[in-house]
């Protein structure tokens, strides 16, 4: 059996969905304080990507504890890391 990952399909403009997602940059930087829809405020600890190239974030309340795989949806910038 052959399997095809949907991310490797042509999006209709000559690029795969994976290529399009990998070209997207991260909106937030490591060290930024972000607010989530649920009211939590966490620091961006790491910039990561999903298997299809979608930008994701590992968030932290501080220290080395990281919560992995958070998408940009529902995140707002509270304090830019360069303003600290």
Short description:
The chain has one helix at residues 17-23; strands at residues 33-36, 41-49, 55-60, 67-71, 75-79.
Structure notes:
- It is a single chain.
- The longest helix is centred in the first third of the chain and has 7 residues, at 17-23.
- This protein has one helix and five strands.
- It has a domain at 29-84.
- By secondary structure, the chain is mainly beta.
- The chain has one helix at 17-23; strands at 33-36, 41-49, 55-60, 67-71, 75-79.
- The protein has a five-stranded antiparallel sheet, with no helix packed on it.
- Strand 3 and strand 4 form a beta hairpin.
Major sheet size, sense and barrel closure: 5 strands, antiparallel
Unreliable sequence segments: none
What is the molecular shape?
elongated
Query: What distance separates the N and C termini?
Result: 54 Å
Strand order of the largest sheet: 4-3-2-1-5
Average pLDDT, all residues: 93
Question: Cα-atom Rg, whole angstroms?
Answer: 15 Å
SSE string, helices as H and strands as E: HEEEEE
- Quaternary structure state of the chains depicted: single chain
* Protein structure class: mainly beta
Share of β-strand residues:
25-35%
Number of strands: 5
The helix fraction, in percent, is under 10%
**Helix run count:** 1
Topology diagram in text:
Layout: H1 17-23, E1 33-36, E2 41-49, E3 55-60, E4 67-71, E5 75-79
Antiparallel strand pairs: 1-2, 1-5, 2-3, 3-4
């Amino acid at each position: 059996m052959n399997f095809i990952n949907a991310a490797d399909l042509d999006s209709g403009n000559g690029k795969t969905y994976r290529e399009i997602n990998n070209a997207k940059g991260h909106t937030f930087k490591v060290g930024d304080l972000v607010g989530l829809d649920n009211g939590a405020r966490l620091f961006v600890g790491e910039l990561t990507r999903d298997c299809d190239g979608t930008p994701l974030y590992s968030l932290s309340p501080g220290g080395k504890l990281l919560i992995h795989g958070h998408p940009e949806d529902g995140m707002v910038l509270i304090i830019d890391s360069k303003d600290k």
